[in-house]
Amino acid sequence: MISMAGKTISRWWALFVLPTFVAFVIGFVIPFILGIWLSLCRFTTIAEANFIGTKNYAAAISDPEFWHALWYTALFTVVTTVIVNVCAFAIASLLTKAIRGANLFRSIFFMPNLIGGIVLGYIWMLLLNGVLQHWGKSITFSGTYGFWGMVLLMCWQQIGYMMIIYIAGLQTLPGDVIEAASVDGASGAQTLFHITIPLMMPSITVCTFLSITNGFKMFDQNLALTNGAPSNSSELVALNIYRTFYGRAGFEGAGQAKAVIFFVIVALVAILQNRLTARKEVTA
Amino acid sequence: MNTVRKTTAVIAAAVLTMGVLSGCGGTGSSSSSQGRVYYMNQKGENNEQFVQLGKLFTKDTGIPFDITTASPGNYGQTLKSELAKTNAPTLIGLDNNDFPNWVDYCDDLSGTRMYKDLQNRDYVLKDGDTVKAIPFVLDRYGIIYNRAILKKYFAADWASIHSEQEVRGFDALKKMVEEIQAHKSDLGIKGAFTSAGFEASSRPRYGDMLPHIPVFYEYRDQNTTVIPSKVSGKYVPNLKKIFDLMIKNETVAPTQLSGATLDDAISEFALGDAAFIEMGSWAYPQLRGKKVSDKDMGVFPLYMGIPGEENSGLTISSNYFAINSKASQKDKDATKKFLDWMLDNDGARKIVTDTMGFETPFKSYAKAGFKTKNPILRANDVYAKRNCYDLVIRPLPTAQWALTMADAMLEYAQGTGPWSKVESSFVDGWTSEYNTVHKS
Amino acid sequence: MSAKAKHSGWWTLFFTLVCLLWVFPIVLVGINSFKDKVYITHDAFSLPLGDMFAGLDNYRKGIEQTNFFASFGWTVVVTVGSVALILLCTSMCAWWIVRVNNRTAKSLYLVFLFNMIVPFQMVMFTLSKMADIIGLNTPWGLWIIYLGFGSGLPVFIFTGVVKGIPQELEESAMIDGASVPRTFFEIVVPIMKPSIVSVAILEAMGIWNDFLLPYLTLDLRKYRTISIAVQYLKGGYGTVDMGAMMGCLVMAIIPIVIFYVICQKYIISGVLAGAVKG
Q1: Residues C10 and C73 in one domain
Q2: pTM for the whole structure
Q3: How far apart are CA B225 and CA B228, in angstroms?
Q4: Does one domain contain both C165 and C81?
């Protein structure tokens, strides 16, 4: 039923919806549609685009560096997701216990999250190059160095964020269930794996997918820390797209095609997440 | 609820003002009746001086002058995104590596005074017969040395070379460099060469400047000045010789090169920690006034064991002006006015010659007696007197070619890749990059 | 309980050490910001004593080279304006979508949801080109761009919030003759206030630190945000002055830390509001 109030409100669309909608069309709808169209064109500007079909996609797929970036990103995402979430969960469960100074610790863990990716990248460039100096190396020595450098950076930035979400989740756990378990003689590990973690599934899903999206979309930190060096071997997919697009003339189409492929991957991950969360909600 | 309403009112007002402001901004900048000059500058080290030059120009003529500077690492990116804008650059700085990529944006310059004022018209960049870009600065590069350190070396009893004049080819250079490196503590230095850094700011010295020497001889062998579709790679072993010499006799371990910056290398040289740096005349503004005095700066050509190289002088390179063919006529005229002004105005000539330290290829500068004292440029006078030929930097297929070269050279230097990769980047990379640009 | 209390001391010690490690990267940047640039790459871990000490030189150079205070100002203009506009417009939009709830409203909602999963690279060229054509390449133009490209998440959060607000209050106000805007601003907004603050924090964090969108969109000759200024130090001028870089990093971090100390409570609620995004 649409209420009377609903009908009255709907007449005010020009005030309530139009501003957002117009901005949305300018800032998203048109660029998005043009983006798909341009991925099928050879172009330097929007005005001078010639339709060439799927050639750009062929060029994108046949670029070995794009594949490298995709695998590199996938691996990066998996590794950071696991490390960030395990650490964040561990810290969260310790910091919800009666530890003196817990609040201060939480604040400190969270702080790096407020610093922008570019600044973060340069902070870690200084630190990592300083450490590697002892072995006569630098962070851009190889793609592997860059990989672990970015993993460290990502952990430093994200653990505090995920920790906050886990703490909020832990605080809503029913204390009586856990108490009952320990009265029944369940060990700490048993309580953790059979009671706490299942009850925490909603938070875990949210955090997991947040880390996955963050890993997949990471750009600023990559640009500042390694900028793909050496030989584009430490290049995540977002940076690869950017470089393909703006790196040299004649490759705009391939760059745009890569962007569409990237979008499809991100969308698939999001849909998968939606399915999983929905199923969890049913069983919970 | 009053606060909420007030806030809303303020925001609404702000939104309205914004519309008005942005409207004003738009008309304000484009309504200038005399057009405007917007220079996209590739010579990062001269950014400040060009800003200064622009201010003087605006003061003299009332024409607004804008500038954006980007370094070699992201020049193409910046230029492209700027060219795509409504207020695009009117004057474009180019080098001959990437010229083919931008040729569509270059207006015909054959009618300009700057073209007619050139002392030597051979160096202009052409598309077919159309003059597309004009050199405005002649740079020299090679191996800059600290004469004070060399004098100490020449005087040592373990030295096998005893004067600068003896260094006329790769063998003497190699002997000298290796002896200096072996006795670095006796000489009070950290290494013979400064670090051969491959961080983006320093990378062009190896992927671009160094390979230009074998490329010059490739052009000579093919008897052409127009870019060939293939190169033989005959001189790649020579490239290896000089590169090996640099990375084995430097201030840092080769494994650290990926992060070493140009600033690192320049500081090492300027503080007297190293005897040699592969660099060019454009670094002079950063070198002067430090520990190495002007008269202690000398330059050797980039010897690499190529037959006949004892008669070569320093490498000559240029940076070019092109006028954006897609700019409005008014803006093109304003830009041409800027170029004319640069030729005639004493203030401009003084900034260009003295502050920037540029050697200019223009008759009007020579006639008015403007000649730079930049010691790195003047170092070529010795070779000119001996009638040495200039090592001219010939066009590379693309800037990407140089980037790929640098990547392969870095991997070789740190021991993570084979030299054969450098070879194939040089030869096969040339063909594939040539085809990328020249496919129709 | 006694066992727990005994362990607690050890855990405090443990976390104190970990936290010291945690702030170390920032402290390191602070230390190096007082060091002459020559020593930064090679002696990152030594204290800036004797020859190495550069005083405030790096800060001076950093400010000069990047025109730091102007960048700071523009970042404030972009962030404050965008956040205000986003809060105002998307909360109104979300309320309208939930209360009207017809087919138009529902499909509008779906389109906004779709917006949330599109990575910026997908529209980076077309969006910046468009911003340029219609003159939105200014800090105030970015307000509209951010409202447009970033409206998905706030609309999503706000619709969730509005769905939880009982309709009766609004209806009775309207029956009493209150206009629709008045009902919204005087009845709905106060109820939504906590979530508005959370979304404000969330958006402010994102926009303050954003790099690529302003970098591609703004007219860089006139306007640079802090992230752009820092990146320019690295890529803009041929050489990299690590000293000036350190100075700028410290100056970029300080306002954030101050903001964090003041608004910590809200920041954490902002994070939790954003956690629905996934």
Answers
A1: no
A2: 0.90
A3: 8
A4: yes
Least CB-CB distance to A231: which of B400, B407, B437?
B407
The CATH H-level (homologous superfamily) assignment of domain A58-283 is MetI-like (1.10.3720.10)
Question: What's C165's domain CATH number?
Answer: 1.10.3720.10
Give the Cα separation of C115 and C111 in Å (integer). Answer: 6
Give residue limits of the domains in chain A.
4-56, 58-283
Note whether residue C56 is domain-resident: yes
CA distance B56 to A211: 53
- By residue range, what is the domain housing residue C46? 2-61
What's the number of CA atoms in the CB half-sphere (13 Å) around residue B411? 21
Instruction: Mark whether C150 and C38 lie in a shared domain.
Output: no
pLDDT band at A188; cut points 50, 70, 90: confident
C259 within some domain:
no
Shared domain for C82 and C158, answered yes or no, is yes
C-interface mutation test, from A10, A11, A16, A220, most C Cβ less than 10 A away: A16
Among A230, A232, A250, beta carbon nearest to B258: A230
CA A123 to chain centre: 20
Tell whether C91 and C217 lie within a shared domain.
yes
Q: Does residue C78 sit in the same domain as residue C139?
A: yes
Chain A residues whose CB is inside 8 A of the C90 CB are 20
Cα of first residue to Cα of last residue in chain A, in angstroms, is: 30
Q: Are residues C57 and C72 in the same domain?
A: no
Give the number of beta-carbon pairs within 8 Å between B and C: 92
Give the confidence band of B25 by pLDDT, cuts at 50, 70, 90. Answer: very low
| 3-state class (DSSP) for residue B389 | strand
Tens of pLDDT, residue by residue over B308-333, are: 999 999 999 999 999 999 999 999 99
Helix (H, G, I), strand (E, B) or coil at B194: coil
Query: What is the model's pLDDT at position C1?
Result: 43
Which stretches of chain C sit within 8 Å of chain B by CB? 37-38, 41, 81, 84-85, 88, 128-129, 132-133, 135-138, 140-141, 143, 185-186, 189-190, 216, 219-221, 235-242
Instruction: Catalogue all structural domains in chain B, each as residue range(s) with its CATH number.
Output: 2-138+318-377 (3.40.190.10), 141-316+378-438 (3.40.190.10)
C267, part of any domain: no
CA distance C56 to chain B (A): 20
Q: Write out chain A residues lying below 8 Å of C271, CB-based.
A: 110, 113, 161, 164-165
Interface mutation target, options B7, B22, B83, B250, chain C, most CBs of C under 10 Å: B22
Report the gap between the CA of C235 and the closest CA in chain B (Å): 6
Sequence-distant (6+) residues with CB within 8 A of A244 are: A60, A63, A66, A251, A254, A255, A258
Q: Kindly report the CA angle at B333 between B329 and B339, in degrees rounded to 5? A: 145
Largest Cα separation within chain C, whole Å, is 78
In terms of domains, do C18 and C156 share one? no
C61, C86, C103: which is the final residue of a domain? C61
Q: Locate B55 and state its tokens.
A: 């201010």
Q: Do A140 and B414 touch (CB under 8 A)?
A: no
Per-residue pLDDT of chain C (278 residues; tens, 9 = 90+): 444 555 678 889 999 999 999 999 999 999 999 999 888 888 889 899 888 898 899 999 999 888 999 999 999 999 999 999 999 999 999 999 999 999 999 999 999 999 988 999 999 999 998 998 899 999 999 999 999 999 999 999 999 999 999 988 898 999 898 999 999 999 999 999 999 999 999 899 999 999 999 999 998 888 999 999 999 888 655 677 889 999 999 999 999 999 999 988 888 888 888 776 43
Least Cα separation, residue A258 to chain B (angstroms): 17
Of B101, B259, B398, the CB nearest to A140: B259
Q: Is the dihedral of CA C188, C189, C192, C193 positive or negative?
A: negative
- Whether residue B383 contacts residue B183, with contact meaning beta carbons closer than 8 Å, is answered with no
Strand spans (E) along A64-207: none
Least confident of A41-45, A152-156, B252-256, C157-161: A41-45
